[in-house]
Structures are given as structure tokens and as C-alpha cells.
């Protein structure tokens, strides 16, 4: 009882029971002292900690943002994708939760061993197909098997979509996902044993006026080699990495070799468009500076120095007189 939070109604009922004698303080102490037993289902062994589930959620929230951009471009319509839930369940339970006729993309993700599933709700799959074929994204009343041409179109769409997973996982490990095959009947899948723990990431997706679910199923055997990398401690250590001395030297070397445009500005002037159109060789332009005034030297578009014009050997040159104060980009 000490670990529970009672509502105001429950508190009032408890006080009323004590005042009427229906319950005594000794009964409450005895109930509080009894050992509470929680039921544990060994078929649903939890292989991932809450910390690791949160890390997987962050990764796939980034994946959802990347997929939103990708699908919007490919389908040429408004697409919204977001993570609905992240759960760890037995593989058998995942298979029972999806329709008998659906679109299942089976991916390999080397160097990790095993396969990853992307299950796409049939309504969403047909809406995508209709958009790719030039339609408005209508969903047919009856879900049928895809033809070879339709299967090829969907294969190209989802094969390129998993390039975004590589980018989403880049902070944890480098993977090279590729589409192995597409299945429409989940009963034919023999990926892992029925009791194997899998992580199921469910996405809500909206395509125009259509909506549905996309599920990604990742078996524990696939994630096992990188489980330590899913902890918050690993993320914090990764974020705190400082550049090595060699990296700093390489960066400094490249900065010193960067080329910048330098402009010696003689002055500025104004004229009408009509005068500009009739300019000819030999015409004289009136500027806002005197002949003996120093020139402004700009690095890019930022004034940095003043200089005196002259000649060095057979070339025109300028001699820097002083540095301009406040000539930084932030002060412009």
C-alpha cells in the first residue's frame, strides 16, 4: 500500500471504513506486511532494459523523420510518420497480431546477423501503390495478391527506404541493410523460434486521407552484439568525445589552406539605369572617395583592412595601413 498513490475517493472510503469499524488499523498493518507476489511469464522474458528500449525509441524516432521526408518525395503527397510504441514480445505474438494477408519486407543488416522485418498494413501498401501508379491514393475494397509488376514497384520503394535506417543507426553501429525478399503471408515466416524475444516498433502513418500502421520487428539475436551500445552511458560517452591531437592538426592544416577572395574597393558611386546602358570605353565615373583616400580591403564581403594603392614591379598592388576594428562578421 505504501507504494500506491490513492485517489481522494479512496482516501475518503478508507477513513470512512476506519471510523465505522469495518476495518481496523491492525488489519491495515497486517495487509501491508504480507508479501506481494507478481506473476512472471517465462515465455515473455524481458531481454531489454527500459534504458535500452528508450535508446531504440530515439533511434526510430529519427528513422521516422527520415522516412517522412523520403515517402513524401516518392509519393508526391503529404505523409506523416511517427513512433506509436516500442515493445518487446515473443515472435509468435507478433505474428498473431498482424493480418493474414499483408506486405512483409525481410531485410538483412550486415554485419549484424539475422533478419529485420518491416510489415506494412495492406491498406497503406495499396495506397502507396496507387500513388506510385499515378492515382490519388485510393484503397481498394478487397485486398488481393500483388502482381509481378506491382511487387517490383513496391520492392523498389521499400528497398530504398531502408537506406534511411543506415543513417538512423549511424550513432550506434554501421549497418548495410538490403532487401532479401517480400512475403505476403506471415504464416510462412520461419525467421526465429516462436518464443524468441523481438522488439516491435510500431509507426502511425498518414498518407493524404489514408492512415494505418507500419511495424518493424527486430529479433533479440540481431541486437545482441550491440546491446551494450544501447545504454545511456554509451550515448553520453559518444557525445563527449573530444577530437584527438592528430584530428586537431589536420583541421588546422585544412583551415590554413582555405582560399578566401580579397577585394580592394576603390570606392562606390551612383548612376541611373539609363546612364549605365550608355556607358562606353573612356567614360569617367565619379566615386565617393578622393584620390589620396585609403582603399578598403574586404575579405569576402567583410571589411578587414585599409590600404594604400601602388605598384610592385610590373603589377598593381596595395599596402595595408591598418586593421579595421569591428570588422568581424558578427558585427556587420
From TrEMBL:
Flagellar motor switch protein FliN-like C-terminal domain ranges (all copies): 254-323
Keyword Membrane: yes
GO cellular component: bacterial-type flagellum basal body; plasma membrane
This protein's UniProt keywords: Bacterial flagellum, Cell membrane, Cell projection, Chemotaxis, Cilium, Flagellar rotation, Flagellum, Membrane
Topology with respect to the bilayer: Peripheral membrane protein
Pfam family, one: FliMN_C
Domain of life the protein comes from: Bacteria
Gene Ontology biological-process entries: bacterial-type flagellum-dependent swarming motility; positive chemotaxis
Similarity-based family: Belongs to the FliM family.
Name of protein: Flagellar motor switch protein FliM
Taxonomic lineage: Bacteria, Bacillati, Bacillota, Bacilli, Bacillales
